[in-house]
Design goal:
Oligomer: single chain
CATH topology: Rossmann fold
Shape: globular
Organism: Candidatus Woesebacteria bacterium GWA1_41_8
Strand order of the largest sheet: 3-2-1-4-5-7-6
Number of helices: 7
Pfam families: Methyltransf_25 (PF13649)
Number of strands: 7
GO molecular function: transferase activity
CATH architecture: 3-Layer(aba) Sandwich
Radius of gyration: 17 Å
Largest sheet: 7 strands, mixed
Keywords: Membrane, Transferase, Transmembrane, Transmembrane helix
Helix content: 25-40%
Order of helices and strands: HEHEHEEHEHEHHE
Protein name: Methyltransferase domain-containing protein
Length: about 210
């Protein structure tokens, strides 16, 4: 099994996917993140992606059983059709209303757990990769998820990785950036327990209860 360091972004997903066999990955992108999570092919994963270039890349990873072309706002799946439904760095690309609707749909499609990863608070991003879908349209905080029955965790340190973090200053272009990476990792347990400190939010909802 590949080693994933505790408190890193993939570690949260791996930890929360324990005991899961089937996964629906909404907005799977180019598949690189799922390639980390599913390196040992322990999950049977269906990916959903709208951007053609990303679909081709995701298929090449070999970690998906299939990749479906579809808009996560419109696609439908039968209730309780997957053990886990995940979306990583997706809801911020939707309007707030569309994001909340997606979260509700995810909860219906999941048998066991829903996992969402998104930047914590405002993080401006325009389109790139010739993909207009990459633009950020909404911004999320822990309270948004807690109101919908999710438990939240923070990942990485916002004062380092956030929109106004130290890595987005001249320090991020200097050799000192490596010290900032290390500092963020050392402090990462703080973000775990105090999500407002995190650069990212990991929101999880286990069916029938909070985590």
């Amino acid at each position: 099994m590949s080693v994933i360091l505790p408190f890193t972004y993939p570690w949260f997903f791996r930890k929360l996917l324990k005991g899961v066999m089937t996964v629906l990955d909404l907005g799977c992108g180019d598949g690189k993140f799922m390639a980390i999570l599913n390196k040992e092919r322990k999950y049977k994963v269906t990916g959903v992606e709208l951007f053609n270039a990303y679909i081709k890349s995701a298929e090449k990873t070999g970690v998906f059983e299939r990749v479906v072309k579809g808009d996560v706002r419109k696609i439908r799946f039968p209730p309780k059709s997957y053990d886990a439904v995940v979306c990583s760095q997706v809801v911020e690309h939707l309007t707030k209303d569309d994001g909340k609707t997606l979260l509700s749909k995810m909860a219906k499609a999941a048998k066991k757990v829903v996992i969402v990863g998104t930047p914590n608070g405002h993080f401006h991003q325009e389109a790139y990769d010739k993909n207009v879908l990459q633009k950020h349209l909404s911004f999320w905080e822990s309270a948004d998820f807690r109101k919908m029955g999710y438990k939240t965790y923070g990942q990485a340190m916002k004062f380092i990785y956030g929109e106004n973090g130290l890595l987005n200053t001249s320090l991020g272009r200097s050799p000192l950036r490596y010290s900032l990476y290390l500092l963020s990792y050392i402090l990462s347990p703080l973000a775990y327990f105090y999500p407002s400190l995190g650069a990212h939010i990991i929101a999880v909802r286990k069916k029938g209860r909070n985590v």
